[in-house]
Amino acid sequence: MRDELNRALRDVPIAEPPGSEERGRRIVEAAFAERKSGSELRGAMPPRSSEGRSRRPLPRLALALGIATLLAALLLSPAGAAVRDWVGEAVESSAPKPEPELARIPGGGRLLVQSAAGPWVVQPDGSRRLLGDYEEASWSPRGLFVAAAEGRTLSAVEPGGTPHWSLTAAARVSDPRWAPSGERIAYRSAEELRIVAGDGTGDRLLARSTAPVAPAWAPWGDAGLAYVGGGKLRIVNSETGDELTAAPALADVSRLEWGANGSAILEASPRALRLREVRAQKVAPGPALGPVRTLPLTGGGISLTGAALAPDRQAVAAVVTHWRDHGTRSDVLLFAPGAAKSRSLLTVPGSLGEVAWSPDGRRLLVAWRGADQWLFLPVGRGKPRAVANISTAFSPGERAASFPRVEGWCCR
User: Fold this and answer.
1) CB 139 within 8 A of CB 180
2) Percent helix, strand and coil across the chain, each rounded to 5?
3) Alpha carbon distance 315, 308 (integer Å)
């Protein structure tokens, strides 16, 4: 009789409060991904009492026991069964320990960072300057100027913050992009694609209807300009407006980048990523669009949150977030030229954001909003670095600091 009662009790499901699994997951994820950088600095020692003994171990022990009890209750309960795999992934994360502030930019160069207050220029030593109250910004080829947009105004601004010139368009200005020579700027005004000289003169219409995607200049000259319009990827002569070549664009394309020394154009959408070869033609003027190489993003419930094409070769860095019932995980992937599969550079819990190549193509900068960090990842040899407190650095004096966006890493 007693044995039968024990068996019956083992089969009775334990009632769980609504949302217990989700609350437990959030606690563990927050404790792991958003830990304070100060407690992780190497060499930090606890304060000592007059007897020379540390006062910190007991609170730490209590905290550790509390977390252990929470994990045990969470993972050993029926509700925690679905969370065990996610916890394993979080523990195996290879994210480096963060430094408290950006003291220098690994590998050199300058960063252009867009914050709620406006764009900032970050020097190689980590010092930074706010350019003004602009909504968007992008580098000129050699970092001598920044093209900045605010409302219907397009401006050329020096890195020190001095405006060089401004023009007022008929509609809202967005996506300014400087040509490789520095002599032209392409920008969107509402749905129009327009061109203006680098000194602010000669503003003219190039195309009337474009998708909300920033145009991309050919790296080897000012003539070729790629944009998306009418469901097609189009390359036009920016001097004459003549269409040189066109092909069906990636569905829901959100990013266009012409890199790899001009040999490829990257198309990215929230769910897909592909490279399209660009070929030079000996007879016909201008380039031709060649075959498409689809880059595999495996797994269900994914979102492509960042992608960038290397400046000098057909290597693509991609940030993919995997959405699951028991939490999220993000991977930084590297697609080498001609490789059938990607190589994972980093896996962390939560969501990562945009990715940018260093000017020399040796490093990546990846934004980690949930942990308030920037991650600097070597593509080859070298150690990864992380910098914490990014929101505070670009929101001085604000109570509710917002996480900024990296707009560019300049220059060779």
Assistant:
1) no
2) 15, 40, 45
3) 9
Distance in angstroms (rounded) separating the CA atoms of residues 125 and 105: 6
Is residue 92 predicted with pLDDT exceeding 80? Answer: no
pTM comes to: 0.77
**Which one-letter DSSP state was computed for residue 82?**
G
Other Cβ atoms closer than 10 A to 180: 17
CB 239 within 8 A of CB 250: no
CA 10 → CA 3, 4, 5, 7, distances in Å?
Answer: 11, 10, 9, 5
Asked if 348 and 33 touch (Cβ cutoff 8 Å), the reply is yes
Per the DSSP assignment, residues forming a β-bridge with 294 are: 274
Confidence (pLDDT) at 221: 74
The domains of the chain, with CATH numbers, are 18-33+60-92 (no CATH), 99-410 (2.130.10.10)
Residues 6+ apart with CB under 8 A from 280: 287, 288
Place of tokens 């097609």: 232
Q: Considering all CA atoms of the chain, what is the largest pairwise distance in Å, rounded to the nearest integer?
A: 95
The pLDDT tens digits of the residues spanning 42-84 come to 333 344 433 333 344 434 444 444 444 444 443 444 434 333 3
What angle, 0 to 180 degrees and rounded to 10, lies between the N-to-C axes of helices 84-91 and 20-33? 0
Token reading at 293 = 């190489």
